[in-house]
Sequence to fold (269 residues):
Amino acid sequence: MTAATRAAGEWAGQELGVRTVTWDERDAILYALAVGATADELDLVFEERLRVLPTFALTLAQWAPDALGSQGAFDVRTAVHGAQRLRVVTPLPRAGSLELRARVGDVWDKGSAAVFDVVVESEAFVATWALFAPGCGGFGGERGPAGPKRPDTAPELSTEVATAPNQAALYRLLGDRHHMHVDPEAARAAGQPRPFLHGLCTLAATTLQLARETGAHPADLTELDGRFSAPVFPGDRLAVSAWTDGVATAFEVTADGRPALSGGRLRFG
Fold:
């Protein structure tokens, strides 16, 4: 059976390879700037005091979801990043190398589409991409768990994230160079009116702002979850609503009144 005719559910458990990735202080600083760190946040942008943002790990592992697409599991022109999970085991050093092992986890049957979980494991973190692939459903698998419900109380915290007009062009230098984030023609082919921001950039920028608002250090992030509801365009001002339970913070993000991130949850320390 070829990849093109292989049922989506048969990809569950597929090994995607092992890779050793390396980075240095310059990479970590560029990442911090790309997700909204300011010049006066010296422990994020100055090598003498540098603490690496945990979400930087997701750029090191971007090859894994791309590897599944390149093997023909789904149409890379229509599949979208549906959700992201990150669990931090130990902080990343300023510079170093790390062995990453990737595999397909669960594959959920949504009827007209399938959701592929791509899991990347290492000594420092475990990350899971949920990839929504239209046209791949209907194989008789389980639908998967429902998304988390929005808290039924008023937000305890409201803040904003101002994205920059050049933010997608800057963020793509970290490894996710899909053309739809910079080329208007590619964006239109993907069903969007213009190039749009990477979901992981939106998620990291929101995490950074919530750390500022709650008095946490962003490098102390230990858990992060979020679902991507709609595209964010460079230059958008994002409204962030958050709720805390004393342990973790739930959050959601809207852009021009439309949901952009839902089911968000993070924990520091």
